[in-house]
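Question:
When you can, review this sequence-structure pair and walk me through the tokens.
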Amino acid sequence: MKTTITVEQYLAALSPDKRAALESLRAQIRSLLPKAEERMAYGIPSYYLEGRPLVHIGAGANHCAFYPGGIVDEFAEALKGYSTSRGTIRFSPDKPLPKALVRDIVRAGLARHNARKSAQASRPAEPPAFPREVSAPARRALATLSITRLEQCARHSEAELLALHGMGPKALGAIKRALAEQGKKLARP
């Protein structure tokens, strides 16, 4: 059975030097991200904002680590002297990351998060391709005519659509009702 541990339990299990380094980093992250939810994820302390991970912290056998994600490369110059890889910054407890650098990295991650959120909010919601009542076999049948959206059905007649293997009267009725709601109808034969 899998055992769930808390952030405090994770930190308590570390050597005193690693615990002190990560508690300092943790305090700084929490002050920079007061609305972030702190929780265990991937077996390490993690900080989520609006359901999305922003940063993680952890310790290995010979190092501590800060996981800010894909923005590590943006700070390559400032991170000289630290071991890095994609999304990971490793440091020794006796040489912690400078507070100003952590601040800049967390702020960059937060800016990226906000930009994604803004881009998603500005994108118009896409209507579903077909009504729910249109079964998977009917959708596959429509795909044989390269019909992937409801509006494309209006270019075809009822007879053409019913001739498709997998298209039945129930699916055709749902398509006709959905088209009618949009002020459209199937093509005449």
About this structure: The chain is about 40% helix and 15% strand. The mean pLDDT is 92. The chain has two domains: 7-122, 136-181.
